[in-house]
């Protein structure tokens, strides 16, 4: 087909590839959510419905984009980590960034009424989006540690701030009361004046939300046989490997053989890489991601 004489304008679209082999993080943040949360009567300092809705929208993104392997959210923001060697949209920055924030936003609106049945949307919310690339594991871990530390600092401040306001201080007064205080002082104010033990507040508020696919254990045939024998010896005749945590695919050719009176149930197990697990159910966790534990349990995130 002949090109039109207008087509030259296409050359003004410049390529925007992200460096190969780097970790891509997309962070989205609600635009003007200070006002949005007021208009929609969010509870302060933490409206659980709003946090759950954010988590739901993030899960939608993980559901749709298999290369998004983890997400961390707090307040009106969410960060999405893509697997290091993703080829999504040929690693084009604006395609990746815009597709994720667009899906997140439409999911947020789509599910709004399930979380706020009595507060219809008064106007369409929007989110901004940016992309950051990190060269290595250390920077990725430090990135998420930074966001979770931020969650803690903000939540402690907001909890103390709203306790003072609910106690009758004006917002200006409450700000002033908290000026120059450190964490210890804020904990002390909460505990001695309001009987609030900060550490007993819900983890969702203190630690934010992590979306990941359930860890899948890859069991090879030998390990599996061993497990079957162990459980048979222990009196369990029928072990099940149907647990969705096991990201393996069974076929229908399960067979039983009797050897020395022990029933050996054999099932063929196809090995799958964890993040490609067929069921790979997405879970939302509220736990520490600053220490090693979370990452050690999920080595594929940083591969
Ligand atoms: P910007 O457009 O620059 O991001 P913003 O008004 O969205 O401005 P943020 O720094 O992103 O400012 O802060 C988001 C604000 O939204 C919080 O300070 C808080 O007031 C409110 N907010 C977000 N989520 C919740 C929630 N779950 N419960 C209560 N308030 C919330
Ligand atoms: P990509 O994700 O790459 O954009 P796509 O399926 O969205 O893929 P497009 O080139 O953007 O492909 O084309 C959009 C398609 O959507 C059209 O080819 C057409 O089939 C359909 N479509 C869009 N708007 C209309 C409309 N108003 N009426 C009928 N069909 C439409
Ligand atoms: Mg912002
Ligand atoms: Mg915001
Ligand atoms: Mg924010
Ligand atoms: Mg299209």
Question: Any overview of this molecule?
Answer:
With 303 residues, the protein is an alpha+beta fold. The chain has 2 domains: 167 residues, Alpha-Beta Plaits (2-Layer Sandwich); 51 residues, no CATH class. 39% of the residues lie in helices and 17% in strands. A 6-stranded antiparallel sheet has the order 4-1-3-2-5-10, with helices on both faces. A two-stranded antiparallel sheet has the order 6-9. Strands 7-8 form a two-stranded antiparallel sheet. Helix 2 crosses helix 3 and helix 5 runs parallel beside helix 7. The radius of gyration is 25 Å and the shape is globular. About 8% of the residues have low confidence. One magnesium ion binds next to loops. GO terms for molecular function: GTP binding; magnesium ion binding; tRNA guanylyltransferase activity. It is an enzyme of class 2 (transferase). Its EC number is 2.7.7.79. It catalyses: a 5'-end ribonucleotide-tRNA(His) + GTP + ATP + H2O = a 5'-end phospho-guanosine-ribonucleotide-tRNA(His) + AMP + 2 diphosphate + H(+). This is tRNA(His) guanylyltransferase.
Q: Rough shape?
A: globular
What is the average per-residue confidence, as pLDDT, rounded to a whole number?
87
CATH topology of the largest domain: Alpha-Beta Plaits
Main sheet record: 6 strands, antiparallel
Q: Enumerate how many helices there are, as a single number.
A: 10
Question: Which bin fits the share of residues in helices?
Answer: 25-40%
Radius of gyration: 25 Å
The total domain count is 2
* Name of the CATH homologous superfamily of the largest domain: tRNA(His) guanylyltransferase (Thg1)
CATH architecture of the largest domain: 2-Layer Sandwich
Report strand order across the widest sheet.
Answer: 4-1-3-2-5-10
N-to-C span: 45 Å
Helix/strand-derived category reads alpha+beta
| Quantity of strands, as a count | 10
What fraction of the residues are assigned to beta strands by DSSP? 15-25%
Which spans have pLDDT < 50 for at least 5 consecutive residues? 232-255
Order of helices and strands: EHHEEHHEHHHHEHEEEEEH
Domain Thg1 C-terminal: 138-291
Family: Belongs to the tRNA(His) guanylyltransferase family.
Protein name: tRNA(His) guanylyltransferase
Binding site for Mg(2+) 1: 29-30, 76
């Amino acid at each position: 087909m002949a090109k039109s004489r207008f087509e030259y304008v296409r050359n003004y679209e410049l390529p925007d590839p992200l460096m190969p082999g780097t970790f891509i993080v997309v962070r989205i943040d609600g635009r003007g959510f200070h006002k949005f949360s007021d208009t929609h009567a969010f509870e302060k300092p933490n409206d659980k419905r709003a946090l759950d809705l954010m988590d739901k929208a993030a899960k939608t993104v993980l559901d749709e984009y298999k290369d998004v392997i983890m997400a961390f959210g707090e307040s009106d923001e969410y960060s999405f980590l893509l697997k290091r060697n993703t080829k999504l949209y040929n690693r084009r920055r604006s395609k990746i960034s815009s597709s994720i924030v667009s899906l997140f936003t439409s999911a947020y609106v789509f599910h709004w009424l399930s979380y706020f049945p009595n507060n219809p949307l008064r106007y369409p919310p929007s989110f901004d989006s940016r992309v950051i690339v990190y060269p290595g594991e250390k920077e990725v871990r430090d990135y998420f540690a930074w966001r979770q530390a931020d969650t803690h600092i903000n939540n402690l401040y907001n909890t103390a701030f709203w306790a003072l306001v609910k106690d009758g201080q004006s917002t200006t007064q409450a700000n002033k009361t908290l000026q120059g205080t450190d964490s210890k002082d804020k904990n002390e104010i909460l505990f001695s004046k309001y009987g609030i033990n900060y550490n007993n507040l819900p983890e969702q508020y203190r630690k934010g939300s992590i979306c990941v696919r359930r860890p899948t254990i890859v069991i090879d045939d030998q390990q599996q046989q061993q497990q079957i024998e162990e459980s048979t010896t222990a009196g369990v005749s029928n072990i099940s490997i149907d647990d969705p945590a096991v990201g393996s695919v069974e076929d229908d050719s399960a067979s039983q053989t009797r050897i020395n009176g022990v029933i050996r149930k054999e099932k063929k197990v196809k090995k799958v890489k964890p993040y490609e697990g067929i069921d790979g159910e997405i879970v939302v966790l509220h736990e520490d991601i600053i220490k090693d534990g979370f990452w050690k349990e999920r080595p594929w995130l940083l591969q």
